[in-house]
Amino acid sequence: MTRRILSILFLSLVVISATADVPKLSRSERKERIKNLSDKYRQFLADVDPIIQPEELDTFLQLESDAQRDLYIDDFWQRRAKAKGVSVSEVRSQYYDQLQTAKEKYRSIASDRGKIYVIHGEPLEVKAYGGFTGCKLIQPLEVWTYGYMPEVGRDVRLVFYQPRTGIDYRLWTPVKSAKENLADLISQEIMALSQENDAVAIERVFGLDTNVCKYELITRLECECLDGKDILKLIQSSQITQQSWQNAFKPPPVNPEDVRKILHSVVLANPTAPQLPANFSIAFPARQGNRTDAQMTILVPRSKLVMKEVGGVKLYSIDVVGEVLKEDQLFETYRYRFDYPFESASDPIAVVIDRFLRPAEYKSRIKLTDLNSSSEAVIEKMIVVPDIGSGSRAAAADDIESNQTKLRIVPLPDQLLTGPQHIDTITSGDDIKAVEFYLDATKIMTK
């Protein structure tokens, strides 16, 4: 048997995946959809809350089945592993280790320190100031140092303070004027002595000392606290950079095209789309090794499809997305596009899908979309794939592994492609003299 690979270079070819923007859900819509999830998936969303992008969340909440959600979770970690250049198991293990540490050391991943730790990992250095064992003029502080933070900068030092009326430390971020923000850092004792007057308290701590150190022209903070000079310097430098600190809470960026990819690789019904009538049947005409050809045929009335002229050629165009599930687990997905010339299209039009499956029981879910009208049909069927490994039926099926002439196009990657692309075909048999390649109904090459 002859087996050849033909390759062609399409210059200036742009293959764009059929991904639209992910519909943005409102807060109430998100809340309702999360409530309807099982515990497993609600827990997943709770665990990854610090690092999941809004578009990722909306994508996840539009999936229809647990099998799709499991596929999405795998993709979620794949994206992060790819960005870090490590394995999926490593990135997932590292994240859950950080998650557990954040819960143990910082009470919750909802706390500011917990979020930062989960998103950015262990800081290079943690230094504490104030509190009962330090300077009594200020609340307990922690300063976390990182070498680099996206959208924040390099050599970043984040200041966390313990609120006078709370337990969880907060990131010291500007919400008022620079001087008024200083009041957040002043100790409960000083605020009480100042009768809760921010201006008086700020003067007591950051104003010039008029007693012991009055001739040195330094602040009371510097005069009374051993590390007061370091604290003052830290505060002054932080006031310059803290405008960008809020960006530290942003989830790490991901490729939005990768996020949307799942929406056109699984079956998702559009409740507002016009319904397309379709009739399903299945046959098992061949085998390949230990797999049986499950040939699914879907008949669509020609009158229900919309014809469109492309490059001078009149076509009916149907997009097919399919899922094969085994024991409620996603076994495989596929996607095809079928173009039928108007002049030669049969009625009804037959969409034929061949999937080579091992003998077993499966669930087939198929979505057909008329690309020219957006009408669609979603078909869900249980199928039992037989073993045709013996008898006359097997003999007929063996043709597929004989010298029968066949040609297959190697699928392109399911993503956005730009620039020159190689389109490969695999041929079997000796009866092929040449292969013609068409782009937008125009012949561009013969090989």
Radius of gyration, in Å, reads 32 Å
Share in β-strands: 25-35%
Helical percentage:
25-40%
Q: What is the number of strand segments?
A: 18
* Global outline: elongated
Distance between the termini: 20 Å
The largest sheet, given as strand count, sense and whether it forms a barrel, is: 5 strands, antiparallel
User: What's the average pLDDT?
Assistant: 85
User: What are the low-pLDDT stretches, counting only 5+ consecutive residues below 50?
Assistant: 1-19
- Give the class from helix and strand content and strand pairing: alpha+beta
| Separate helix tally | 13
Walk me through this protein's architecture:
- The protein is an alpha+beta fold.
- Among the domains are: 122-249, no CATH class; 265-385, Macroglobulin (MG2) domain (Immunoglobulin-like).
- Helix content is 28%, strand content 29%.
- It contains 13 helices and 18 strands.
- Strands 9, 10, 11, 13 and 14 form a five-stranded antiparallel β-sheet that branches.
- The longest helix is centred in the first third of the chain and has 19 residues, at 66-84.
What descriptors fit this protein?
five-stranded antiparallel sheet; single chain; elongated; Immunoglobulin-like; disordered N terminus; alpha+beta; four-stranded antiparallel sheet; 447 residues; 13 helices
